[in-house]
């Protein structure tokens, strides 16, 4: 499978193009293919797939078989966010299933222990994480690294600087459940990354809605994940337009 190009930065913009990715965690799973088609028809750029294993986070959702089934019904960009322990064991499965983006948590890839990530350095790339990134690229998927609200953004910088990462996902809620409240302090991590890497795709996920999007946009995010704010809206198209317009406006003024 050939990788679909990632959003790029245009002249006069301070970041890559605004991208909206509704999280299918908030969809009606009994009508998942139909729900995904509806979102794309209403203006979604990507479809965000939350994969949870009940170990790295205290919730259990879907895996590669659902992605494979969904791929049969859509050509949309499938943005898979793996909130799982041992993410390296799932690379081949998600590549075969048709995922476009494989985003893993830096905290999970650093080692098997829950606190192993504390040994990571902002100055030196960890070889296990490097190998993970290269393995994803070799499997013809884009590479995303996610960080929790408590993880310093400096720790992901070595991998971006080495060209190993296509996107960094900044969590603005604790990963594990949809419908949580936006954590405004977490978007400072996006601002740090945007100042350091103007061409980087920076995704924010957690509590994003019309009443919180401006803070994320002002911080430099360009890829917006929203679940309940989109799927639960009376007019999902209007919500997605608002999210995208906020990012585009900030990109032009930034």
Structural commentary:
The structure is a single chain. Helix content is 33%, strand content 17%. It is an alpha/beta fold and 254 residues long. Helix 2 runs parallel beside helix 3 (91-97).
Summary tags:
alpha/beta, eight-stranded parallel β-sheet
Question: Can you describe this structure in just a few lines?
Answer:
By secondary structure, the chain is α/β, with parallel strands linked by helices. It has 10 helices and 8 strands.
Q: Could you outline the blueprint of secondary structure elements for this entry?
A:
Blueprint: E1 19-22, H1 32-41, E2 46-52, H2 64-71, E3 77-83, H3 91-97, E4 101-105, H4 106-109, H5 127-138, E5 142-147, H6 157-161, E6 167-171, H7 188-196, E7 201-205, H8 213-219, E8 223-226, H9 228-231, H10 236-253
Parallel strand pairs: 1-8, 2-3, 3-4, 4-5, 5-6, 6-7, 7-8
Helix pairs in contact: 2-3, 8-10
């Amino acid at each position: 499978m050939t990788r679909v190009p990632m959003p790029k930065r245009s002249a006069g913009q301070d970041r890559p193009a605004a991208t909206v990715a509704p999280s299918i965690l908030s969809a009606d799973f009994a009508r998942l293919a139909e729900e995904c088609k509806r979102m794309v028809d209403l203006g979604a750029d990507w479809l965000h797939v939350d994969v949870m294993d009940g170990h790295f986070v205290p919730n259990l959702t879907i895996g590669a078989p659902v992605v494979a089934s969904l791929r049969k019904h859509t050509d949309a960009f499938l943005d898979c966010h793996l909130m799982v322990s041992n993410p390296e064991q799932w690379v081949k499965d998600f590549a075969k299933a048709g995922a476009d983006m494989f985003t893993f948590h830096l905290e999970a890839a650093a080692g098997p222990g829950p606190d192993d990530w504390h040994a990571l350095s902002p100055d030196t790339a960890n070889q296990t994480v490097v190998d993970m990134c290269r393995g994803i690229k070799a499997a013809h998927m884009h590479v995303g690294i996610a960080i929790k609200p408590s993880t310093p953004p400096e720790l992901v910088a070595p991998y971006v600087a080495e060209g190993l990462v296509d996107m960094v996902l900044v969590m603005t809620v604790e990963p594990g459940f949809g419908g949580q409240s936006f954590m405004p302090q977490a978007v400072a991590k996006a601002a740090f990354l945007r100042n350091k890497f103007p061409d980087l795709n920076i995704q924010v996920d957690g509590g994003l809605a019309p009443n919180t999007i401006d803070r994320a946009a002002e911080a430099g995010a360009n890829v917006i994940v929203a679940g309940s704010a989109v799927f639960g809206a009376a007019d999902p198209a209007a919500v997605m337009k608002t999210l995208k317009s906020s990012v585009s406006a900030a990109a032009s003024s930034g």
